[in-house]
Amino acid sequence: MPWRTRIVSTGDGLPAAMAVDFLALMKPRVMALAVFTAFVGMLCAPAPVNPAFALAATAAIALGAGAAGVLNMWYDMDIDAAMSRTAQRPIPAGRVAPADALNFGLLLATVSVMMLEILAGWLPALLLAFTIFFYVVVYTMWLKRSTPQNIVIGGAAGALPPVIGWAAATGSVGIEGLVLFLIIFLWTPPHFWALALFKVGDYARAGIPMLPNVAGEAATRRQIFVYSLLLAPTAVLPWAMGFAGGLYGAASAILGAGFIWHAWKVLAFESEDRRPAKALFAYSILYLFAIFAALLLDALTRHAIGLA
């Protein structure tokens, strides 16, 4: 394919469409979730956080998350071209050249790690660098194409942002940061396997060994239910361990019950019916946002009344 970059000039001569395509390479929706959980991790920490520092550190983490997305799209351009839901991404659609994407991703990764090291020290910077490496090299280049457990192991990269935020605020990881990590880690498999159940043909055409393609849909539905049973009580741990209050405890219990109910519907319905999987996928996005929004509200309340 002859690579081309689609340019649309704005009034001041800036290539607006090109900027949009490079932003798309950063996977802004995925980046937004990573940034939000990192920000919540920062504010949940017991140490007081200066607002200017929090914004700057969050910006550095955002650039790191964007870098991981760009490098993922660069390496996965062949897979993206084969799948209907990704074929119009900037690289397979020919709007951004692979070399430009690679250089952009490496630049973002370097700037983000250096920026966070200057702002918050070596530990959060090291965690950010490890997250980018794990997502790009371990997950994208190795696990994604070689094992149906790609999402389980690779989910560690997506679960690290709140740990980075906690480390940026405190200078350490702490058991609390690890609990936040575990919530996202256990959430990731049922979230992505629900997607894989109703996109099984796409993954088969691309040659990606997602669990439904390898172990079958019945086994996938059982695994989704098992992970949901593990996730729901794990999400209550911040309240049980005392670093979140009763409001969060009640919210997490209700949201967890909803997750289990959706997972049960996926397990109970015949595999030909894709509606329960689609409903679980949509609910899982709402669930993770709501869990961390409840944590954020709890943290802001506790800081306001001097409990944190």
From TrEMBL:
Keyword set, alphabetical order: Cell membrane, Heme biosynthesis, Membrane, Transferase, Transmembrane, Transmembrane helix
Sequence intervals crossing the membrane: 30-49, 55-75, 96-116, 122-142, 163-186, 224-241, 247-267, 279-297
Superkingdom per UniProt: Bacteria
Membrane-protein topology: Multi-pass membrane protein
CDD domains referenced in this protein's UniProt entry, alphabetically: PT_UbiA_Cox10
Gene Ontology MF: a single term: protoheme IX farnesyltransferase activity
Reaction equations catalysed: heme b + (2E,6E)-farnesyl diphosphate + H2O = Fe(II)-heme o + diphosphate
Entry's EC annotation: 2.5.1.141
Keyword Cell inner membrane: no
Keyword Cell membrane: yes
Pathway: Porphyrin-containing compound metabolism; heme O biosynthesis; heme O from protoheme: step 1/1
Annotated InterPro entries: Protohaem_IX_farnesylTrfase, UbiA_prenyltransferase, UbiA_prenylTrfase_CS, UbiA_sf
Subcellular location, record wording: Cell membrane
PROSITE patterns recorded: UBIA (PS00943)
Additional remarks: Carbon 2 of the heme B porphyrin ring is defined according to the Fischer nomenclature.
Task of the protein: Converts heme B (protoheme IX) to heme O by substitution of the vinyl group on carbon 2 of heme B porphyrin ring with a hydroxyethyl farnesyl side group.
Family: Belongs to the UbiA prenyltransferase family. Protoheme IX farnesyltransferase subfamily.
Protein name: Protoheme IX farnesyltransferase
Encoding gene per record: ctaB
